[in-house]
Structure to design on (221 residues):
């Protein structure tokens, strides 16, 4: 199926979100500003096979994500498909399901931070991801986007497929985009450690997410 003109554009942010933080929100907002999508689809991972187990339950992660993305300029959908799927979470399965659900005339744009770009070549069927979606990656402190930090085959694929924001918005899949300039030095790992020590990382997490963490006594041990 050749890429065709897109009627609408959906930006997709997948993640463990254990817990969701301001880095995730800023990543999404960066691409919302750039691409002006019609919808942001946030997809909490069910069973992220490259991580060593998650601390919060799927239900808690879904509720935290709901709270974190409750005031965006675009429509936001929290999509629980990966949580419903029992098997390991592979993005290729998710994008295939999204394409099936949305049909051939929607631009699907999968967003990620540079840490994931740096090992994209280890993802299941990573080159086939472009058969279903565009891929956009943003910088992250400690993780650059340039060829010295990204595996050569990933850099080659992103160079070959490079598109601008308008091409990504207006075609359905197959392009790549690198966004330097996002420098939000926050990670879930750091937040879990702070919470475990009894700190209150209110500058790192949306207020309503921190309220939920406290109410539910999450990440205390
Ligand atoms: N501060 C950040 N800047 C840019 N991208 C980010 C940032 N934090 C997370 N991301 C991206 O968001 C997606 C989901 O990340 P994830 O939920 O694993 O958070 P994390 O902070 O990396 O978690 P952990 O510390 O547990 O590994 C990934 O594509 C990741 O690259
Ligand atoms: O498809 C894969 O093999 C794959 C490998 C690693 C990560 N991902 C996806 O990348 C997104 C961010 O993952 P993480 O581990 O940073 O939370 C999330 O949607 C994961 O399902 C996907």
């Amino acid at each position: 199926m050749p890429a065709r003109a897109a009627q609408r554009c959906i930006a997709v942010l997948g993640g463990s979100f254990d817990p969701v933080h301001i880095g995730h929100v800023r990543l999404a907002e960066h691409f919302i500003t750039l691409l002006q999508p019609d919808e942001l689809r946030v997809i909490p991972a069910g069973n992220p096979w490259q991580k060593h187990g998650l601390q919060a339950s799927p239900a808690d992660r879904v509720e935290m994500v709901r709270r974190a993305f409750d005031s965006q300029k675009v429509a936001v959908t929290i999509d629980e498909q990966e949580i419903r799927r029992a098997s390991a979470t592979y993005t290729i399965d998710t994008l295939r399901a999204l394409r099936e659900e949305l049909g051939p005339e929607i631009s699907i744009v999968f967003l990620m931070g540079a840490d994931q770009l740096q090992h994209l070549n280890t993802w299941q069927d990573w080159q086939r991801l472009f058969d279903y979606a565009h891929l956009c990656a943003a910088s992250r402190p400690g993780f650059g986007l340039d060829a010295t930090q990204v595996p050569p085959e990933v850099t080659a694929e992103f160079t070959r497929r490079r598109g601008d924001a308008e091409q990504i918005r207006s075609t359905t899949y197959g392009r790549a985009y690198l966004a330097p300039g996002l420098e939000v030095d926050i990670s879930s790992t750091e937040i879990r450690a702070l919470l475990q020590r009894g700190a209150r990382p209110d500058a790192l997490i949306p207020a309503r997410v921190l309220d939920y963490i406290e109410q539910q006594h999450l990440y205390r041990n």
